[in-house]
Amino acid sequence: MNLLKAEWNRLASRRFTRLTLLLLVAGLLLIAAGLFFSHHRLTDADWAQARERAAASTAEMRAQCTQGGVQNDACDTKIEAADPRWFLPATFDFKGYAEPLVMVFGGLLCLYAFLVGSSFIGAEWSSGGVANLLLWRPRRAPTLLGKYVALITGLTGVFVVLGAAWAGIMVLLAQFGGTFDGVTPGFVASIALTGLRMLVLTLLIGTVAFAVASIGRRTAAALGAAIGVILVGEVGVRILFEGLFTVSRYERFVPSSYAGAWVGKEMRFMDVAGCRGGGSCVPVEWTLTMNDSAVVFAVVLVVTLGAAFWTFTRRDVT
């Protein structure tokens, strides 16, 4: 417990951790401010003005049917009356905005977890802090485990606290600048589960960043691995398997497909590999589910974290 407290203090006292946390909070506040000033609760006057504008737009479109004083008989039947909702000012619809904003929040937290997770152990390797720590505590596995637990619990705490604040902001936006129409207990439970899945993804990314930086003994190792995944796993696979070769269901090799399936419970794709020879063809629809993502995530977690502990206990730390 003393080791864990020391690691918590070390994590919280790092300037990089504090700076990135401030930037994260500032980014969330900027998003909230933009939503607040661009949305407001609809009033009777807004509806009245929207109906007037809809009527004027409809009259203008129908007037264009008259060319040279001759009325087109089919014009009035083709042009429907404009919907007043098209002319309403923006309002914060909680049901429509909640899930995208939870995903935006989760995406920012994933980036934060990657930066903090990689720098927490990477900076200590670079500065010699790990070697100094092992001079008075030579038990390597418990030492790395203490750092890892401190990171995961710290990230969880940040996610929960900021997540609660973010949920409160969304409620306030809907209260003063929007509506709760259509929001049911089932919908709230669904949003909560989406947030929980984003938490799991955040912790996974933080873990992988921590493990890779520990294996490479540099923060740059995790950054390089991330660039490699983007260039090879995202761009390279798409260019190779979609543009140059005909590979069925190539999205199975794209990491973001599993992240999307995890967050959204599933992702649907259209396999058109069999349609490239010409002629009539019906693309085959296939699905990646969150269960598929869970298996991949578990393998990545075991491999990277296991490799980090193995190298930490076996390699020379001087």
From TrEMBL:
Keywords: Membrane, Transmembrane, Transmembrane helix
Keyword Signal: no
Superkingdom classification of source: Bacteria
Native source organism of the sequence: Longispora fulva
Transmembrane annotation, as ranges: 21-38, 101-123, 144-167, 187-213, 220-241, 294-312
GO cellular component, one term: plasma membrane
Pfam families membership: ABC2_membrane_2
Entry-linked PANTHER family: INTEGRAL MEMBRANE PROTEIN-RELATED (PTHR37305), MEMBRANE PROTEIN (PTHR37305:SF1)
Gene Ontology MF terms in the entry: ABC-type transporter activity
UniProt-recorded name of the protein: ABC-type transport system involved in multi-copper enzyme maturation permease subunit
